[in-house]
Amino acid sequence: MKIGLDAMGGDYAPEAAVLGAIEALEQIGDDTRITLFGDEARITEILSREGCPASSFDIVPTTEVIEMGDHPAQAFTKKSDSSIVVGFQHLKEDKIQGFASAGSTGAMMVGSSMVIKQIEGVIRPTICTVVPTDSGRESVLLDVGLNVDCKPDVLYQYGLIGSIYAKAVLGVDRPRVALLNIGEEPEKGNLATKAAYELMKETEEFYFVGNVEGNHLFDQEIADVIVCDGFVGNVVLKEVEGFYGLMVKHGISSPFIRALNYEEIGGTPVLGINSTVIIGHGCSTPKAIRNMILQTEEAVKSGVVTKFKEAFN
Amino acid sequence: MKIGLDAMGGDYAPEAAVLGAIEALEQIGDDTRITLFGDEARITEILSREGCPASSFDIVPTTEVIEMGDHPAQAFTKKSDSSIVVGFQHLKEDKIQGFASAGSTGAMMVGSSMVIKQIEGVIRPTICTVVPTDSGRESVLLDVGLNVDCKPDVLYQYGLIGSIYAKAVLGVDRPRVALLNIGEEPEKGNLATKAAYELMKETEEFYFVGNVEGNHLFDQEIADVIVCDGFVGNVVLKEVEGFYGLMVKHGISSPFIRALNYEEIGGTPVLGINSTVIIGHGCSTPKAIRNMILQTEEAVKSGVVTKFKEAFN
Q1: Are residues B213 and B280 in the same domain?
Q2: Which residue of A38, A259, B71, B280 is surrounded by the most CB atoms within 10 Å?
Q3: Does residue A175 share a domain with residue A195?
């Protein structure tokens, strides 16, 4: 298997990206190779400095970089020799089986939807995050910011997508899917969640356990998969980041608090598209990049994309 | 001034309510009296056991209690001699100037809207909470669960209501009002926040500082007042509760974490109505009741209701 990494993506690229890739070498499978997309001279310079043979990686030289300030869709067209555009081309041609980047989220989404395209039957692709819980197990939260003003049928599909992901990637046998809401009772909620509840309550496509409130996000008492609108999911996720930052600031730590660190969580998978794409935090450190590569490998190995295709066809 | 307390409200009533009222006696102003609504025999029994003279309070005997399981609107009509219904009657007649209860939230909302009524010009009354921040100062978050699917003009009014509240009750000189959103840029958000931003951006009614993301809820770097839809606000608030619960469970503490305790925060004021109403947590302890009484006194003293009326007329 080949995993592609955008070596030019992220605030500390290519330094952090290449160092992360080197760290990942120790942990990836024997049959996995990492392909680095980016400025070949700078990449080989870092590798040489670190005493890492350039032959440890496949390197695809690119000459351009999509910057954070670029308009994602325009940059995708104009910067045709950028690491992200070339990476997506390789992904589309199956030269790599998964692609990860800590670069422009917008450009990664353009590539996901325009080059890789959504799976037939999926109304809206989504992005999820894996939330650490107090039990030590992880749960899946989606959507965390891609789609706002989600219609009930979109929320319903997120239940199915999250369930397939939790089963395939996290190894949860029969994932409990809950709808994030403002009360446990079926009649609680806003227009979208009330209608989504009605769609979910008797489904046989996934194991729906009802509504979950915000106070149970981290205890996994209720759910393995938590479905919400992207506006809500984004606020919830950033609230976690805010907590974590305060705890770090005050020197408060625990296994649970450390698990809230985005570096540990890795990247954000794009789900419902025809391949494996993972988007990292712009400020990714080498450790975060390493985890994102391992996460990409795991997702490819799990065959989750094929499982999505089977479910929606 | 007279502050009314529903002595029958809350999971541990009347015990916790009466004990909380006794605790509050030490801290309320010399010119403030507390009126207890409830079962006179049980109230006086607790007072006597605690060695507190019954004359320390005004007691209004009532014979019924609206239970959590009762339908709020129906119970309000049927249980006309309940502590909540009688309390609202006294509030309406200005026999008390503020009313607090840890009882049925639904019944408290029925009383607020049907007996006290919203201030003319207010589209939707709201409930807010005071969020502790890392700076030690507090900020106001609204709406925290009363109104979902808020229209942009409702969000706009929440900016004004929150600003008046922060100034009058929290003593913030020129409250910075922000819109909770999923990006800082004006064009970010869902349909409602994008439109609300447009309404707020050039207002002179309050000091709008733009969007705030979920990671800045607790640091007060950006805002003193944070406006959001009630669905989002409720999830955000319960996420805090969940986080606090985990910290307690693991014996992790700090001044900031302790400040997240609902007992410290007190109750939830209903804003935009013609008097002062505060709703407490069902599981309120004596300490939480005491803080809710002090909060009610503070709100009445601040004249915030008059300030709302002036702003909306």
Answers
A1: no
A2: B280
A3: yes
Closest CA to A227 of A238, A217, A219: A217
**pLDDT computed for residue B82 by the predictor:** 98
pLDDT tens-digit series, residues B262-282: 777 779 999 999 999 999 988
Contact B246 A256 (CB under 8 A): yes
Interface test with A, best of B71, B150, B190, B262 (most A CBs within 10 A): B190
Same domain, B298 and B211: no
CB spacing of A242 vs B214 below 8 angstroms: yes
pLDDT band at A215; cut points 50, 70, 90: very high
Q: Is residue A211 part of a domain?
A: yes
Per-residue pLDDT reduced to its tens digit, A88-140: 999 999 999 999 999 999 999 999 999 999 999 999 999 999 988 888 888 99
Q: Does A242 touch chain B (CB under 8 A)?
A: yes
- Shared domain for B233 and B151, answered yes or no, is yes
Interaxial angle between packed helices A152-168 and A191-200, expressed in degrees from 0 to 180 and rounded to the nearest 10: 60
How far apart are the C-alpha atoms of A165 and A175, rounded to whole Å?
9
> Which structural domain, as residue segments, surrounds residue A171?
123-264
The candidate with the shortest Cα–Cα distance to B127, out of A278, B113, B136, is: B113
Closest chain B C-alpha to A193 CA, distance in angstroms: 10
On whether ipTM exceeds 0.85, the answer is yes
Of B149, B232, B238, the CB nearest to A213: B238
Assess B237–A contact: CB distance below 8 Å, yes or no. yes
DSSP string, B184-223: SSTT-S-HHHHHHHHHHTT-SSSEEEEEE-GGGTTT-SS-
pLDDT tens track for B116-159? 999 999 999 999 999 888 888 889 999 999 999 999 999 999 99
